[in-house]
Write a structure and sequence with these properties.
- By secondary structure, the chain is α/β, with parallel strands linked by helices.
- The chain has a single domain, classed as 3-Layer(aba) Sandwich (Rossmann fold), CATH 3.40.50.
- Helix content is about 35%, strand content about 25%.
- It contains twelve helices and 13 strands.
- The strands form four sheets. It has a seven-stranded mixed β-sheet with strand order 7-6-5-8-9-13-12, with helices on both faces.
- Strand 5, helix 7 and strand 6 form a beta-alpha-beta unit.
Length: about 280
């Protein structure tokens, strides 16, 4: 019956119930969440708790996928930022000069709060792209980006590659559009218990994808070492930065970050340098 309804009822109509639910819960939840323990770095509001989120699928739990299982204090009730988006913002703000010095930046599958920050910076020449999202500036496939070689100073791609059939080609495309000396932050969910990435883009059944990869639209589950090797093979100099640990437990708790998250900082070598 559920499959039949999906075929008969347009997606925009099916999604109305989610929009109604979000609107109905927004102000009561916001009121009862206020406090002083947690501060959202995007909206600046303070809370005693944030929304919980995550999936209790066996594949996620057994493979210890970072930031995927049910956990408290994930989504800001005011601006709806996620813990991984807050970490990305803090890293860019504290560890790069992007917001002060600007540059030409490509944002793949843009998160709303991060997009607002970049657009409001005044010096970032911002471009957004996605294959399905209608509100981006350029509709494009990550496997074949419609940009000339070396035209961006930076690329942000946050939890996208696990959805892409040919992630190696996507990595090569991101590398291609970066200028020599440019950088990318390429985040994916990492399964701490895996020694090697598991993948099968040929699997199309949603329930089978959930069983194998923990989400209906994922085609792989990454192991950390294997992910780093794929990025290096694409030509990047890669640093796996344990940024929450560098921030310290007080800051992690203050901004409700995922303590085990790693920032994958990927640089494109200057001409003549070896990757």
């Amino acid at each position: 019956m559920k499959s039949l309804l999906k075929r008969l009822v347009p997606a925009r109509i099916r999604l109305w119930r989610y929009d109604f639910y979000e609107r109905a819960r927004y102000y009561p939840e916001l009121l009862f969440s206020l406090g002083s323990r947690i501060e959202c770095p995007f909206c600046g509001w303070h809370f005693r708790r944030l929304r919980s989120q995550g999936f209790a699928y066996p594949a996620l739990i057994q493979n210890r996928v970072v930031g995927a299982v049910p956990r408290p204090n994930v989504v800001c009730p005011r601006c709806l930022s996620h813990d991984r988006e807050r970490l990305l913002y803090l890293f860019i703000k504290n560890q790069t000069r992007l917001l002060e010095e600007g540059g030409r930046l490509l944002h793949v599958a843009p998160e709303q709060r991060m997009r607002q920050v970049l657009l409001q910076s005044g010096c970032v020449r911002y471009y957004s792209t996605d294959l399905c999202e209608p509100r981006v500036m350029v509709s494009a496939d990550l496997l074949s980006l419609p940009f000339r070689e070396g035209c961006f100073d930076a690329v942000l791609c946050n939890h996208v590659l696990e959805h892409v059939d040919d992630d190696r080609q996507a990595m090569h495309e991101i590398h291609r559009v970066l200028r020599p000396g440019g950088w990318a932050i390429l985040q994916v969910p990492i399964a701490l218990a895996l020694k090697q990435t598991i993948e099968d883009p040929s699997v199309k059944d949603e329930s089978e994808r959930i069983r194998l990869f923990g989400q209906r639209d994922h085609v792989r589950m990454y192991a950390a070492h294997d992910y780093l090797e794929r990025l290096r093979h694409a030509g990047f100099d890669v640093s796996a930065v344990p940024y929450p640990k560098l921030l310290g437990p007080e800051v992690v708790a203050r901004h409700a970050l995922e303590a085990e998250e790693t920032v994958f900082w990927c640089g494109k070598p200057q001409a003549g340098e070896a990757a």
